[in-house]
User: Fold this.
Amino acid sequence: MRLDVCESRTCGNAAFREQLDLVLHRIDDTGYGHGDLAAPEALTIGITGVSTYRHAAFPGRDYGTLHHLARSGVSSAGNAGGCHAIEQRFVALVSVAVVLAKVGVEVNRARGGCSQRLSLVGGVSKISAMENATERERAPRGIWRVIAASTAGTMIEWYDFFIFGALATIISTHFYPSGSATASFLKTLATFAVGFAVRPLGALFFGRVGDLVGRKFAFLATLLIMGGSTAAIGILPGYERIGIAAPIILVILRLLQGLALGGEYGGAAVYVAEHVPDSRRGFYTSFIQTTATIGLFVSLIVILITRRVTGETAFAEWGWRVPFLLSIALVVISFYIRMQLGESPLFAKLKAQGGSSRAPIRESFNTWPKWKVVLIILFGVTAGQAVTWYTSQFYALFFLQTALKVPTEQAYGMVAMALLLGTPFFVLFGHLSDRIGRKKIMMAGNLLGALSYFVLYRGIAAAAEPLNPPLIVAIIVLQIAIAAMITGPVAAFLVESFPAKVRYTSMSLPYHFGNGWFGGFLPLIATALVARTGNIYAGLWYPVAIALMTFIVGSITLRETRERRIWDEVEDAAGTDRS
Assistant:
């Protein structure tokens, strides 16, 4: 079977309509055309010779031939022989051969250059129309608005979550009884860690909502819960005023923050991934991976500015509440932006086909093979990703403040500068994973982290006496780059590891177990190790051990996912429905 594209006058209107109907015989409510080209004989479609095309499914709509093809990302260009070649428009004009080869079609030019023959590879008779090629290979219009809305909301949730940790030393004096400063600080870190501990529960709850109702609804709900809880911390009376109720209410608010964050990340990552082409999923989803770093950066900048405006004494008394209250304005803005978005096109199509899950939790975890995938991803990906991220950023801040006694404002300033310089590495490694694969980059990051942390932190200590800010910033940026090797590609990897109908639930659980437990407890465990041993570097044994474990488990058990095409699931379902 072949499809010839020519300008010949023998390609009349009737033949054009007949054959185009075979290719674009179905246009559904998502706006994409899908069709099977299964005729055994050669098909010839004229590019010229007809001015309009009226589809049977939409009798009130006329499509100009070239206009309709251009709407699918296809344009015509005359060649020297007077014939027309079809070209696909994405990034630059390239031969349609490149595009259709990605959906299993091989292109051969006819001698004389007056036509292109599209021969199916291996005799397979299915072509997912021209619009499908576009759907796979080129991001839709408005993708940057989708990414901006998703990343802004997720960044704000990370901001809300991290200002608690950044202000842990001050919070410990307000919400716990006076006594041992170290004991109060450890209690505050434990309260901070509680928010991480419940993240897997949030992943299950909101993951189920996202797979049942929709991605958009779930991450709108998480945004409001996170913002409300953060603002409530800003007005919560301290221990001196309400006694034991203060730390109890504080823990409850941290639990709500943890539940919200457990549902937020999976929704944002899946939402973006289901909007973008398969071939650039690592690049586009890497912007979601920058949100935690940007959220920490914004929290540090807000705290620094507030300190400067209020002064140290006033900040310690009441000024620390301002960053929490600021969350109200940020959440309102983000909520408005997200309300303008529609549902994920892939999920909308899946739901329209009746392919969404009715019991996402049961379908995600009801068999051992499914649990095996979750455990492999937990111990072979997300555990190491979590500890490398927290070691490079959050623990670096704690180390400067508590172990090296660097003044708070200088510590915040150096870490904030390192975060700003290091953030582009997440996008770089996400993009690189589209080229060479996710697994090898993530495993290399784990190994580099395990081998370098003691050297890097000794370097920070050496640069602190006398204080050398540029060198400390450079060392932290290097740590962030190592963490970005794992964190940059991880969203794409997780999305590709689970089916669409349970993707939100399935991917959120191992991610938040890894980040909530292995990562969230890192400051507490590392600080406790230092306090017990008296060695300021003892806390590094924890991230080194976890990163090394992840490298070993992941190298042995993980499969590369870069070539997986998540749109196949809904397209195959559509094909089954038509057969």
Observations:
- The two ends are 20 Å apart (CA to CA).
